[in-house]
Amino acid sequence: MTLEISTDQARLDVSMIHAFLASESYWVPGISRASVEKCIKHSLCFGVYMDGRQIGFARAVTDFVRYAHLLDVFVLPEFRGRGIGKLLMENIWCIPSYEPSCAIP
Question: What pLDDT digit, counting tens, does each position of 71-80 carry?
Fold first, then answer.
């Protein structure tokens, strides 16, 4: 099992992110795909990947200096309870370096 967290927007599975947010989240039920795409475009996004498949997501609205507002954080239900969300948050807290990706040992 290979787990990776990346800020590369080109890797994001926008269909999966939209499906989760629109159908399973309580904070933006029914959100349109166009709105999700716009949010992604204007945010620092974090994708969580297991063996190449995206299984989690988070995004930050940030000035890249001292402010970041964290939004839309989730791990797909079938992958919860394994500490993946905790690893995601640990990687988000190191955003001042803004490295394009971080491999998890």
Answer: 999 999 999 9
